[in-house]
Design a protein that fits this description.
By secondary structure, the protein is mainly alpha-helical. It is built from twelve helices and seven strands.
Length: 330
């Protein structure tokens, strides 16, 4: 990527030392030079380094590693190391010798579920990732495109990685039996034991929280926060009454449209209840996890959505000295 330049017009107070009037050049790739009050020049230039010459690629590598660690480490490392809570199989033997099972765990096993795992990953990870990259490249909110793309990708990767890691670790610790436990694990009423393979038995004990619900909500939640940040909720109204009315209507419509990705995650969550793979509380817990991590991760890279600079990456604001320009140099 070639070197790009932006211009920021600010005023430097006499108390500010020009040697300290620069930001983290290594990380954000920019050096801001300010004109002194005595000079007649009103131009200030920001020399922006190419992306690979900043610390942002290292930050992106950390996000990528956190993503893969969160996705794969629970089942491939932590579960073999720590094991899984093995709750006793609930049943009751009558005097007649008949075995009574828990009806809540005796729902039919639906093999062809509504939303399969592969389709879930495509819609919750691949689709949001492509949308974020395309939107930030076509319509960036920063003068330097890579700030916006970098921030959006990091938010998605960390949200998904941390959400998946938490979901899988809680599954291991709780070990709640699924609604279709008996049929899924191949429970034999004669031996009173499960006859399925080890992987399927572990799967039958991984009901809480819902992984489908948490993953779909996390992926769609990142899109919701990203779109809401671009709506401009915190921007001031226009002076013209007609313009103000049109602006209000447009913002309301845009805000509602920004929430539409949650319709897909809601459908995914409901499908797990219909397919008898989760209890209602499993789904609620999964949705809460999926909402929490995008909320936290978004605000690590972007201002709050009610800010006047919502949607602009914090790295871009820091690099251009925009965020505190009015407060520090007015």
């Amino acid at each position: 990527m070639g070197t790009e330049e932006t211009t920021v017009l600010v005023r430097q107070p006499s108390s500010v030392n020009s040697a300290n009037a620069s930001i983290d050049v290594e990380r954000y790739g920019s050096q801001v030079s300010y004109s002194s009050p005595e000079s007649n020049s009103s131009d200030s230039n920001t020399q922006v380094k190419p992306y690979l010459q900043t610390k942002l690629p290292r930050e992106l590598c950390v996000c990528i590693m956190a993503f893969f660690f969160g996705i794969y480490s629970p089942s491939n490392f932590w579960r073999p190391l720590l094991g899984m809570r093995m709750r006793p199989i609930p049943y009751q033997i009558l005097k007649s010798g008949d075995v009574v099972l828990d009806l809540e765990l005796n729902n039919p096993f639906v093999e062809n579920v509504t939303i399969g795992s592969n389709f879930l990953k495509q819609t919750s990870i691949t689709l949001p990732l492509l949308l974020l990259i395309i939107i930030t490249q076509i319509s960036p909110r920063s003068a330097v495109k890579y700030f916006d793309t970098h921030s959006a990708v990091c938010v998605l990767l960390l949200s998904i990685g941390l959400c998946e890691f938490t979901t899988q670790m809680v599954k291991m610790y709780v070990g709640r039996l699924r609604p279709n436990f008996y049929q899924l694990c191949g429970f034999n009423s004669d031996t009173l034991e499960c006859t399925a393979n080890e992987h399927t038995i572990m799967e039958s004990r991984s009901s809480f929280p819902s992984g489908h619900s948490s993953l779909s909500t996390a992926g769609m939640g990142v899109l919701v926060w990203f779109f809401l940040g671009r709506v401009g909720i915190g921007l001031g109204p226009l002076r013209s009454k007609d313009a103000k009315k049109r602006q209000s209507v447009n913002r309301n419509v845009a805000t509602v449209l920004s929430l539409t990705p949650l319709a897909w995650s809601t459908f995914v969550a409901c499908s797990r209840l219909v397919d008898c793979w989760h209890h209602p509380s499993d789904i609620i817990a999964g949705v809460c996890l999926g909402l929490f991590f995008p909320l936290v991760m978004y605000h690590m890279w972007y201002p709050t959505i009610v800010s006047s600079q919502a949607g602009v990456p914090l790295s871009s604001l820091a690099a251009a000295k925009i965020q505190n320009a009015d407060k520090d140099f007015a």
